[in-house]
Specification:
heterodimer; A: mainly alpha; 14 helices; disordered N terminus; B: alpha+beta; six-stranded mixed sheet; 10 helices; 28% helix
């Protein structure tokens, strides 16, 4: 007991800095945070509510705003589950099996992180637009992807697909495949092994990935902007709607709608912290999220 | 249930993990696969269990080819080096797992499952830990739970992959005696992998010594220790002194290049020359428990020979550092170099 007590004391002494140094470091960090995060966040709500609640509500109740909110929710509601299935399947394959082309798959998963979102959008326009590779075929069959909702959903899926897979791969690799092997040798089927052994082990990492994926899906601007065509009330998502309002000098409305995204960010942050806290308390590994 | 392995081969890319293995595991015996890391012993175990697939060759359980049966259909209990307990389940649920995943028709009632799990937990003497999670257990406890879990599905074969490899020495010794007793009670055909010769010698009915994907020798612990059939087995099991024919033709007694292998405890000492003895100078004397270990230098280049004497024998001829002595082998084995 006494020796461990001493150890703690020693450690305190070893990392002890003079009060001035501590103060300077904390001040610099806080100032930086305030300047780049705090003030903008405050500005969003200040501008949104600056002219009173009535105008704020009015901006949110505008039919075009509603349609933007609706479209954003639809895109996220399709992209997140799609990437959930893809992410789990890809991570499961990469972490638990050896196969040819594994490193190619890993690289491909990272592609959306490496490519600028605007370029991602452009790729889809080049593929599916009227002048694109599949454009004539799509027109013949009367399918409209670009400048329509399906295009927005597609690019949202593309831009957000690394989030869940990237979250799970290191976690599942660290956990190894012994538990799965044990389950199978005990007579469990692949499906039983997946639901009873694999999923419970990755649930917090999975939730963490879903939260990040959702935040990005709702907030994506660049790629969606290219394929959407900015048709009011039709193909505008929240971020695009904010831009249009702002360009029309309708600042109150722009910031009111923007405040929704800011709120989403705050909720995401809170949910992320809760999940991290749960993971720490569970004693299992913290999902890799340090790079986010 | 007996296991027959016929002409088994396994390659990982260019690496040959198993080279034409033939082996018979008798029903009810406890067999050790012993060898250095990378010798193929774990690969062999995993292939028997259906967790890996051989490139060629056959595995028969009680005379029946099991190639078409995957791991879940082989009715084999597998115990992993790092326990592989389900970390999100209690000890009880871990042991119950195999019973709960059975197809509906074969599944027992909840009361029956409860009864059997507690029976198994009593068997491994850890009934009081039923509600704990694996992270709250010590390594030795985890491995006993892993064993209980493997036994829950009443396997006909038990496979253990370095079951005590991750434990400290004291727990390891306790557990291997316990495993031996358990096996004497249950008589399940068991194969365990180890790189620890002491463990194999103490626990197994028979030992299979493996090296670089080949079986070097199969035999009882006594047999493998006393009559190694190859230089590798001689060196891997127990300490041994080597005498090359070039320098010590007196002992190798063979024309051409040969090496004589002599165990430290097969060397005797004397203060006066004996027939075919070598002069040596004592360099170190260490009493360890009931034995005394000497290091003596022989020849001009001062080659060091290890000698192990019982305390009684040492007391008859007590020697000290720098004493001149004569050594000769009581037992010697010569292999061509």
């Amino acid at each position: 007991m006494s020796s461990s007590h001493q150890l703690i004391n020693n450690r305190k002494i070893a990392t002890h800095e003079s009060k001035a140094v501590t103060l300077v470091l904390i001040t610099v960090a806080l100032f930086y945070l305030l300047l780049f995060l705090g003030i903008p966040l405050f500005a969003v709500f200040y501008e949104a509510l600056g002219k009173g609640w009535a105008l704020y509500w009015a901006a949110l109740q505008d039919p075009d705003a509603w349609s933007a909110i609706e479209l954003t929710l639809i895109a996220a509601a399709i992209a997140v589950p799609a990437n959930l299935v893809f992410g789990v399947a890809a991570a499961w394959a990469i972490a638990k099996f050896e196969f040819r082309g594994k490193s190619v798959l890993i690289t491909l998963i990272d592609l959306p992180f490496a490519v600028s979102p605007v370029v991602s959008g452009l790729i889809y326009v080049l593929l599916f637009g009227a002048q694109g590779w599949f454009g004539p075929w799509l027109q013949e069959h009367d399918i409209k992807l670009i400048f329509a909702v399906p295009g927005i959903v597609l690019v949202t899926i593309f831009v957000t697909f690394p989030f869940i897979a990237r979250e799970l791969i290191p976690l599942m690799q660290a956990q190894g495949k012994e538990e799965e092997e044990a389950a199978i040798s005990l007579g469990a089927s692949g499906w039983q092994t997946f639901w009873r052994v694999t999923v419970p082990n990755i649930k917090w990492g999975l939730l963490y990935g879903v939260i990040l994926c959702n935040a990005r899906a709702m907030g994506e601007f660049g790629a969606v902007s290219v394929v959407s065509g900015h048709i009011r009330g039709m193909t505008n998502t929240i971020p695009l709607h904010v831009e249009i309002l702002y360009n029309e000098y309708n600042f109150v409305a722009a910031f009111s709608v923007a405040s929704l995204l800011a709120l989403l960010a705050l909720v995401t942050l809170l949910a992320k912290s809760i999940v991290e806290f749960k993971v720490m308390n569970n004693g299992s590994r913290l999902p890799h999220g340090e790079t986010e | 249930m007996s296991i027959t392995i016929q002409n088994l081969n396994k390659q990982f890319g260019n690496f040959t993990a198993l080279n034409n293995i033939n082996l018979e595991v008798n029903s009810g015996e406890l067999l050790a696969l012993l060898g250095p890391s990378g010798c193929g012993k774990t690969s062999l175990l995993r292939i028997i269990g259906g967790l890996d697939v051989q490139n060629s060759g056959k595995i028969l359980f009680h005379g029946t080819d099991v190639e078409q049966r995957d791991a879940r259909e082989r009715n084999v209990g597998f115990v992993f080096q790092h326990y592989a307990l389900f970390r999100h389940m209690t000890v009880f649920e871990n042991v119950a797992f195999g019973l709960r995943v059975k197809p509906k028709k074969e599944r027992h009632t909840e009361t029956e499952i409860k009864r059997r799990v507690h029976e198994l937990l009593q068997l491994v003497q850890l009934d009081w830990l039923a509600d704990r999670y694996p992270a709250q257990l010590s390594g030795g406890q985890r491995q006993r739970i892993a064993l209980a879990r493997a036994l829950a599905v009443e396997p006909q074969i038990l496979l253990l992959d370095e079951p005590f490899g991750a434990l400290d020495t004291k727990v390891r010794k306790e557990l291997r005696r316990w495993l031996r007793r358990l096996h004497d009670e249950l008589h399940i055909t068991s194969v365990f992998v180890t790189h620890d010769q002491e463990e194999a010698l103490e626990v197994a009915d028979r030992i299979v010594v493996m090296n670089k994907g080949n079986i070097e020798q199969v035999g009882s612990p006594d047999d493998v220790y006393a009559n190694p059939t190859s230089p590798f087995v001689y060196q891997f099991i127990g300490n041994v002194n080597l005498f090359h024919s070039r320098t010590h033709a007196l002992w190798t007694q063979q024309p051409g290049d040969a090496v004589a292998y002599v165990r430290p405890h097969d060397i005797d000492i004397s203060l006066i020359p004996q027939q075919s003895s070598l002069p040596a100078v004592v360099k170190q004397v260490r009493a360890i428990g009931s034995v005394v270990r000497l290091e003596a230098a022989i020849g001009q280049d001062g080659e060091v020979v290890e000698i192990e004497l019982s305390r009684e024998r040492f007391n008859i001829t007590p020697v000290a550092v720098n004493d001149e002595i004569f050594i000769w082998p009581r037992q010697i084995k010569v292999f061509e170099a």
